[in-house]
Amino acid sequence: MIMPNLPAFLAWGLITSLFIAVGWLPNGILGGFGNADDPGSWQGAATQLALADDGTTFQQYVGMVGPMVTYLLPILIANAGGRIVYKERGGVVASIVAVGMITGSTVPMFLGAMIVGPLSAWVLKKVDSIWAGKIKPGFEMLVDMFTAGILGAAMAVGAFFGFAPIITGVSDALGNVVSWMADNHLLPLMAVVVEPAKVLFLNNAIGNGVLVPLGAQEVVEQGKSLLFLVESNPGPGLGILMAYTFFGIGAARSSAPGAAVVQFIGGIHEVYFPFVLMKPTLIVAAILGGATGIATNVVFGSGLRGPAAPGSIIAVYAATPRDSFVGVTLSVVLAFVVTFLVAAVILRASRKKDLAAGGGDLAAAIAQTEANKGKSSAALDAMAATVGAGTATAGGTGPTDGVAGAAPVRSIVFACDAGMGSSAMGASILRDKLKKAGRGDITVVNKAVATLEDDVDLVITQRELTDRARRHAPGARHVSVDNFLSSPVYDDVVRAAQAESQAETAERSTS
After folding, report:
1. pLDDT tens-digit readout, 304-326
2. Ramachandran region of residue 458, left (φ > 0), alpha (ψ -120 to 50) or beta?
3. Catalytic residue annotation
4. Beta strand pairing status for 57-61 and 411-416?
5. Helix 110-130 / helix 140-158 crossing angle, nearest 10 deg
6. Residue 402: pLDDT above 70?
7. Is 490 exposed, middle or buried (CB count within 10 Å of its CB: 0-12, 13-18, 19+)?
């Protein structure tokens, strides 16, 4: 639900950083703080009634910051959740219900959207199944439209009066906890929960479900929030990877430098999770580093104006206000230094034992990380390939049709859950191989499994997704792989394509 909508989070963060009253380019109209009653003010923008400090009322510009965080982002999250469960119909109903929930609350409803989006789509799916196949021909559209409309309206009202107050109460309670921790100088203790949760892939639930909504409220009130940098600080991950670079052994040591670049610059934190799973005591280093970063932001009063998504140092600086660069920079640097030093001590202390045990099984740790995530990862696949973990095959336990077939291959689709990341990289690899083999005429694209259509010749998926892909494209040939970035299947495809080309050439010459 979150990943497809990260561009919207980034857009909101940039608009906030630029146009609010304390932004880089303050603009009362776009930032939503200007007085529309002032002489010569812009008359074409939306306004709302606001209360001035002296007790009088005036028309204040609505701006873009508030509506985006209040309406756009939760609706996008709910829509994505609805589509996952029940495609377009689920997405529409989820959006309707999300509006009911949003308007029934006074806080950003990110967590609520993660719940009501898939839930409302599931309810619609169950209701549709009651009379599936029982409607007389010609009335299907009528029934479908009224079912979705009536059910969506009913659930929106229910979310307004029932669900919104619950989520608001939860959000207020969490906000009170954060305020209590701040008042008692205990905010660094959040790292005790956040850092282990990241390794177990609960980071989206904590970051986008809890910290981002609370941070958004602080941005409205204070112009920035350190909560945006609690989960996304790249310092702890970089510290662990650099400790492995200098003090690790075997495959972990050779893989760590490349992973550090991906983590710190690319913002993909999950690449350091397998290194922690290999040696769980390293979570202590991550916790201490994360706590140091939080404490630094507390001392300097620094924070971000929007979420750093993904958690790249580039995204962090893009959301940093002008008065927070020193604090934010030090929070990342000190988090890195503390994590590195503690991790180095742990790795050095266990070096002899690790050497005797063969250095640990990084491939198994990568597999465990993907199991925690619940799906494959392009970055983890790439790291697995470097340590020999990817031994993909066409066939085996997964359902496959094979590469060769009666009809020539003119179009190939790589399909994964989101249609991004690993499938895009796999498509790029095969596209390059085909081009070098003289078959650049074959179209190779990547898509999400849910968007597949039965107009493709060959579909390449990871093993666990092949059955789903077959249902969407029953007329295509299907091949399963374990690793999009390292598979002998690609060479089979290239050989088959070359054989087809040679056969066509021979046929033309004889005719």
Report:
1. 988 887 788 998 998 898 889 99
2. beta
3. 416
4. unpaired
5. 140
6. no
7. buried
**In 463-501, where do the E strands start and end?**
477-481
Handedness of CA 304, 310, 311, 317 (dihedral sign): negative
- Distance CA(25)–CA(218), nearest Å, equals 20
**Could you give the CA distance from residue 58 to residue 72 in angstroms, rounded to a whole number?**
26
pLDDT reported for residue 406: 56
| CA gap 278, 110 in Å, rounded | 33
Residue closest to 272 by CA, chosen among 239, 308, 313:
239
Q: Reply yes or no on whether the pLDDT at 242 is more than 50.
A: yes
CB of 457 closer than 8 Å to CB of 412: yes
Tokens of 309: 């998504």
Residue 415, strand partner residues: 447, 461
Residue 376's pLDDT is what? Answer: 55
105 contacts 94 by C-beta, under 8 angstroms: no
Residue type, 375: K
Contact between 358 and 250 (Cβ < 8 Å)? yes
Q: What share of the chain in percent tops pLDDT 70?
A: 86
Contact (Cβ atoms closer than 8 angstroms) between residue 396 and residue 446: no
pLDDT, position 222: 80
* Cβ neighbours of 349 (radius 10 Å): 12
Q: Angle CA(366)–CA(367)–CA(370) in degrees, nearest 5?
A: 90
What percent of the chain lies above the pLDDT cut of 90?
Answer: 28
How many residues does this entry show for the chain?
511
Alpha helices in 350-410 (DSSP H): 351-356, 362-373, 378-386
- For residue 444, what are its two tokens? 């190779």
Check residue 373 and give its pLDDT: 57
Identify which has the larger pLDDT, 220 or 24.
24
Q: What is the DSSP letter of 500?
A: H
**CB of 212 closer than 8 Å to CB of 315:** no
Q: How far apart are the first and last CA of the chain?
A: 55
Q: What is the mean pLDDT of the chain?
A: 83
Whether 448 and 417 have beta carbons less than 8 Å apart is answered as yes
DSSP 409: P
Quick one: DSSP state of residue 136?
Answer: P
Residues 6+ positions from 50 with CB-CB distance below 8 Å:
57, 58, 59, 60
Burial 36-59 (b: 16+ CB within 10 A, else e): beeeeeeeebebeebeeeeeeeeb
Task: Give 264-282 pLDDT, tens digit per residue.
Answer: 988 888 888 888 888 889 9
Contact between residue 17 and residue 315 where contact means Cβ atoms under 8 Å apart: no
Q: Rounded distance, CA 57 to CA 12, Å?
A: 28
- Could you tell me which of 170, 175, 213, 205 has the C-alpha nearest to residue 74? 213
Structure tokens at 212: 């981002």
Question: What values do phi and psi take at 479, rounded to 5?
Answer: -130, 135
